[in-house]
């Protein structure tokens, strides 16, 4: 069997351009991410967070949740990070801000975080031609479908015509 000299098609993994975002659409990001003790301790110490609830198993056992909690900033970073390949890889200009970040239920070592994003709104930028503002609502659930984190994020993304022909 001979190999073709040229590929039939070339597919580039990228996020969505402004025009491709539709309000109300729900994106489910897979696979989920099972969080380990090592993840939590490494992230917590890398970010200089000395909170005993993340590091001290003995002390945490006597606290209301009875065990260490996954660092909520790790949960938020993983929640947003899981959306990148599907939504903003190579098409984002910048994160503009976060609002309404909540952690209604703790995430524990061994839990799996499943993430989804709903497009809340979008509008063209009035000050940056070729770019638009897309507001995303992220939700993270554990393996039992319990919501462990939510966040609303505003992003600045490219319009397709503004970057056509540019390497990705």
UniProtKB/TrEMBL annotation:
Coiled coil region boundaries: none
InterPro entries: HotDog_dom_sf, MaoC-like_dom, MCH/BMMD
Domain MaoC-like: 27-140
Family: Belongs to the enoyl-CoA hydratase/isomerase family.
Protein name as catalogued: Bifunctional protein PaaZ
Gene this protein is translated from: paaZ_1
